[in-house]
Specification:
The protein has ten helices and 16 strands. By secondary structure, it is of the alpha+beta class. Strands 1, 2, 5 and 9 form a four-stranded mixed beta sheet that branches. A four-stranded antiparallel beta sheet has the order 4-3-6-8. Strand 3 and strand 4 form a beta hairpin.
Length: 454
Amino acid sequence: MASVSYSGQVSGNLQTFQHQGGFCNNSPEKRDAFGWRLNNCEGALFNDEEAETYVGVARAKVKLYSNDGTLMGSGETNDFGNFQFYWSVGPSTGYGLARLWMYTEQSEGRVKVTNLTSSSPLQYFVGQFDMNPDSNTWIGSWAWGTPSVPDKYTNVYDGAIRLWRSSLITSNKMLSLFTGIRIKCFEGPAFGANSAGKLIRIGDDQVRPFTPQTIVMHEMGHIVQSLSDSHHKFSNSAGYYMWPQTGASGPTPMPIANHNEISPEWQAAAFEEGFANFVADTGLYTDQSFAGVTCSFVGIPCPEGELYLEYSTALLLGCPFNNLGDKANWQDSSRWEISTENYLWDIFDSNIDNVVGGSCNGLPAGTQFSDNINRPFFEFVDTLGNYVKGLANHQTDEPFSSTSYSDSSVVRRDGRSHRDFRWNFQNRHPTLGIGGPDTASLLCMTCVEPTVDP
């Protein structure tokens, strides 16, 4: 008697309760004192229709096992949490009851969310189902988390996948290098978030798992930088991050734990953080977005008065602290993370701003500056990759004086800044070479004098 194998299909929908904040709220329409619409959601990738509701767990691995542990088949969810794949078993296993599992790992292995003790992705038991051969077994919709107790791990996973599929996937360099990223959850309530190598560590409280823009997406932005140009970073202790401190015994205007979008930082640090912020922004907004902002709120849209992406924060304040690079003023806006973020966003976005500014780039006050550039995301990644390896001006490791790359060799804390990105974008552009766009006017629009290059 011939042996008989059995096969069929299984399909369903897997969801999690979405509790992440920072979404765009379409209505009612709101405008600020400048007439800028605060909640124009054109170009937003995460809006109120998805907030505080059940959404599909996207691009996650799904596996089906028999009761004796034999793998019957595997597949992945699509962008909406739907899945359908074939299964098959030999005669010794047979068909019947089978167990379905979902894993917090992107189907291609780009990112995975794990717990503290294991490097494997979290396993979510969906249920036990009776498989029918030669047919499709629909298991229905299954969800994790509730409005009162949202699931932290799947929310972190959702934030990571949003960034991957919105912008990182458009970069050939990231398609090649951004793989095997582990997001380790959770380090404890006192821990913030950081990244090194291909590891992201996130603290455990009621905020960090649910603020994608400033936590998981931001840390992924740091990894994008590291993979792009392999530059060395100095310590993020206050003595090397926060301006004007140059060591443990120096003055500390603000502790490192409080560094934020408008804290005074050495420009190398402000660029490091601002670029990571920019990468995170592309996970929530396209280049066509009108009212993108950066914020760290849970379960609510970014409130009024938060930091604009499209319109310079420093410019909105009338450039009150701009001293054209004068290091005597700790509030110089060239030291703000948001100034780097605004500058990079103006290169990226397709909305043309025409701004009358002060004296800048050798031009008199009253000059109109425009941001009509609109370059694709991959050019930012590839521009970093085109930096010359070395310690000289405009090179990857400009802050250091030696290849020991120790904190004690950090001498140019304002090196590798937004001004160096401008030089490389123009002179080592990934597709235009030495004829890349000059973005000096965009620095002027963020109250940064491009001719000052410490």
